[in-house]
Specification:
With 402 residues, the protein is an alpha/beta fold. Helix content is 46%, strand content 14%. A seven-stranded parallel sheet has the order 4-3-2-1-5-6-7, with helices on both faces. A four-stranded mixed sheet has the order 9-8-10-11. α11 packs parallel to α13. It is globular, with a radius of gyration of 20 Å. The structure holds nicotinamide-adenine-dinucleotide and magnesium ion.
Length: 402
């Protein structure tokens, strides 16, 4: 057992699904975790309540107007907490709150810059925000290596794989050793298949946002719920795994596993297959990341294998899930293609959630953007951000023409 130390947390996206689950784990272990900074997009009242309960030094929100409202709300409760806003505010929360651990739980590209800063500053980065790694894989991993960051995956599949690797696989520097030294042949990412796993394909045209967000096994934010329905989420996770574990794409497989009990697996050279099992509850990977290398109570119900009717695994059908195929294409192209894939998908999913784009056109929008913006070398962060902006503009234009 390692000595318990108090960790100081900055939670980026504290009002979202991962953010609130993180605070739920922290609430049960107040002696081990202090909250230094909390940030949110627009949910000001929820953030104010969290500030009252956890007393961070810094809070940050998206707009200047919301920052003023939050400041008034906090002062009304007798709290003097520094309130910042915008991208700079998120970065301030990471760099000036004395945190040693950053939970990266903002959804989408908005999370990139503060998460990258946390990596550069050598923090323990609990990575839920997969979009930031997909957008800027090489740049992000290099920043983590240079900064000496501890990168711990929170996405349940990647957390499972991390748990199935030998204990000395703890640093981004080790990714190149996977094949030679660890004997890893393949990793198998499991996927539930989402709410439309068995829906006849001709009935998918009129899917509504609420139907797409009604995930059978997990409760999550709306963007990732739609990504799970289209399986773009698994596509993003393949790219995430490629960067986190330094494995070539041919060694990363996707399996549909409707029960969501086996969270992912590693197949080794000697024939062993290691799996991590558990309830589909994000508090398990969150507690793992917070306490690593120790284990703490996550408040999760124990898994009872005798109550399961079975565990099933099948290969995904790329005709049913074209977004997964597009993600594999973008991953193989490399360079800026994953940036384009991610940006186009964010725009298309937002349009779908606002009722401006039919469900089946999400994949078409992403395909359009990938065809319009051929892969280039993702040499610098500026180049990545420029391509991200171009892909968003082109996708938005395409959507208005539908
Ligand atoms: P969510 O929508 O519930 O929460 C997102 C958080 O980000 C909120 O706090 C929101 O206020 C904040 N935010 C949104 N836009 C912002 C902006 N422009 N600036 C600042 N803050 C902003 O999402 P979630 O389900 O908690 O997912 C968060 C991240 O974790 C995503 O990248 C998702 O892919 C990943 N993830 C989530 C789950 C899950 O179970 N929910 C599982 C694996 C990975
Ligand atoms: Mg996942």
């Amino acid at each position: 057992m390692h000595d318990l130390i108090t960790r100081n947390l900055c939670i980026l996206g504290s009002t979202g699904s991962i953010g609130m689950n993180t605070l739920d784990v922290v609430r049960a272990h107040r002696d081990q975790f202090k909250v230094s900074a909390l940030t949110a997009g627009r949910q000001i009242e929820r953030l104010a309540e969290q500030c009252l309960e956890f007393r961070p030094k810094i809070a940050a929100v998206h707009s200047a107007t919301d920052a003023r409202t939050l400041k008034e709300l906090l002062e009304g409760k007798g709290l003097s907490i520094a309130v910042h806003h915008g991208e700079a505010g998120l970065i301030t929360a990471v760099s000036e709150s004395d945190c040693d651990t950053v939970m990266a739980a903002i959804v989408g590209a908005a999370g990139l810059l503060p998460t990258l800063r946390a990596a550069e500053l050598g923090k323990r980065v609990l990575l839920a925000n997969k979009e930031s790694l997909v957008m800027s894989g090489d740049i992000f991993m290099n920043a983590a290596i240079r900064g000496g960051a501890e990168l711990l995956p929170i996405d349940s599949e990647h957390n499972a794989i991390f748990q199935c690797l030998p204990p000395h696989f703890t640093s981004p520097k080790n990714t190149s050793r996977m094949k030679e030294h660890l004997g890893v042949e393949e990793i198998w990412l499991t996927a539930s298949g989402g709410p439309f796993r068995n829906t006849p394909i001709d009935q998918l045209a009129n899917i509504t946002p609420d139907q797409a967000c009604a995930h059978p096994n997990w409760v999550m934010g709306r963007k990732i719920s739609v990504d799970s329905a289209t399986m773009m989420n698994k596509g993003l996770e393949v790219i995430e795994a490629h960067w986190l574990f330094g494995l070539p794409l041919e060694q990363i497989k996707v399996l549909i596993h409707p029960e969501s009990v086996v969270h992912s697996m590693v197949r080794y050279r000697d024939g062993s297959v290691m799996a991590q099992l558990g309830q589909p509850d994000m508090r398990t990977p969150i507690a793992f990341g917070l306490a690593w290398p120790n284990r703490i109570d996550a408040g999760v119900a124990p898994l009872n294998l005798t109550q399961l009717s079975g565990l099933h695994f099948t290969e995904p059908d790329l005709l049913r899930f074209p977004c997964l195929g597009l993600a594999f294409t973008a991953a193989r192209q490399g360079g800026t293609s994953p940036t384009v894939l991610n940006a186009a998908n964010e725009i298309a999913v937002a349009a779908f959630l606002e009722g401006r784009l039919p469900y089946l056109k999400i994949a078409q929008a992403v395909e359009f953007a990938l065809n319009q913006l051929p892969s280039q070398k993702a040499g610098s962060l500026d180049e990545v951000l420029t391509v991200d902006r171009e892909a968003r503009l082109k996708t938005s234009d395409w959507i208005t023409r539908q």
